[in-house]
């Protein structure tokens, strides 16, 4: 059994909608446009030096690869709505967690999302990441031991919120 079939692909409703919109954009808009360009370019003769043809074929492969990835991700998705969470003070999938890092004397906030929704610019981390695994099932006020490359770090959960993620 492969790893992808054993690990659930949890996803927020917003993440699912984003991936589905991307898949539909690729299938309904981009791929037909590129197929049209490749078809036109193929009629122009020598394909070995035909930039439109060569680039178009390359782009089609990229689109098809991304389409397969998105189809698999959406097909195995388990959509979990953070807003429906009943344990508002405990960390589960979809939580936005604010914690205090004792070593750096700084407060940080992350949102725990699916592996296909990771976005470091928005502090979205996978539920399978070390920080998320350390925080899962903990509550506001708990101190958590986090194993880092520099050693064990103690972090304290300041706030747990469940909100709609953009």
Write a brief caption for the model.
By secondary structure, the protein is α/β, with parallel strands linked by helices.
Characterization of the model:
With 166 residues, the protein is of the alpha/beta class. The chain has two domains: 77 residues, Transcription elongation factor, GreA/GreB, N-terminal domain (Helix Hairpins, Orthogonal Bundle), CATH 1.10.287.180; 81 residues, Chitinase A, domain 3, CATH 3.10.50.30. Helices cover 39% and strands 25% of the residues. The protein is built from four helices and seven strands. The strands form two sheets. It has a five-stranded mixed sheet. Strand 3 and strand 4 form a beta hairpin. Helix 2 packs antiparallel against helix 3. The N terminus is likely disordered.
Distance between the termini: 34 Å
Helix content: 25-40%
Strand content: 25-35%
Widest sheet, order of strands:
5-4-3-7-6
CATH topology of the largest domain: Chitinase A, domain 3
């Amino acid at each position: 059994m492969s790893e992808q079939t054993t690990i659930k692909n949890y996803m927020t409703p917003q993440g699912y909608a984003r991936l589905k919109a991307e898949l539909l954009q690729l299938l309904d808009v981009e791929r037909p446009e590129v197929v049209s360009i490749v078809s036109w370019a193929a009629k122009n003769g020598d394909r070995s030096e035909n930039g439109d043809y060569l680039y178009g074929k390359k782009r089609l492969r990229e689109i098809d690869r991304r389409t397969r990835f998105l189809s698999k991700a959406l097909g195995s998705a388990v959509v979990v709505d953070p807003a429906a969470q009943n344990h508002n003070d405990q960390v589960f999938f979809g939580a936005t967690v604010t914690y205090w890092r004792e070593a750096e004397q700084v407060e940080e906030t992350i949102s725990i999302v699916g592996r296909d929704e990771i976005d470091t610019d928005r502090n979205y981390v996978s539920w399978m990441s070390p920080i998320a695994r350390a925080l899962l099932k903990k509550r506001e006020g708990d101190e958590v031991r986090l194993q880092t490359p520099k050693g064990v770090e103690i972090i304290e959960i300041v706030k747990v919120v469940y909100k709609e993620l953009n």
